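Last lecture ended with a question: if I hand you only a sequence, what can you say about the shape of the protein? Today we answer it with a concrete record. The protein is MICOS complex subunit. Below, first the input exactly as provided, then the predicted structure, then a couple of comments.
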Amino acid sequence: MSILEDKKLPIYNKEENEVTLIKIPPSTLQLKISQSRNQLEKNVKDVSMRIENIVDKWIGIENKVEKFAKELVPSNGEIISGGIYVMIAGMAGLILTQRRSFSIRFMTPIFISLAASTIFLPETHRNFRNMIWKYKQNYF
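The predicted structure:
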């Protein structure tokens, strides 16, 4: 048995081969691909930043519109029924001035709608008037 044990081969080689690294300069194709990839990454980052800026501006606009609507709508939230009456009054003003001059035909529905809004939407009309007054004080 000792003869068989001596003849067992080792699993790994006893001598280690030395690894030598050879530095190969990149080819022109590799350089061009690398430059193209870097340029593409830069362009993608640029486009994503622009899209992000556009989205941020859009969110800002949405917030301004939401704030405007919250300031304008009355606290009880009843705007539909009064709004319908105001629209009907404006259309009635348009019908009444059918055969008049353009300026009268244009301005009468606006004035009648404003007058109707003081009656049917008093809180909304007051909020709108206050908003216009603040705007006038700030910018004029």
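Comments.
1. The longest helix spans residues 28-72.
2. The chain is about 75% helix and 0% strand.
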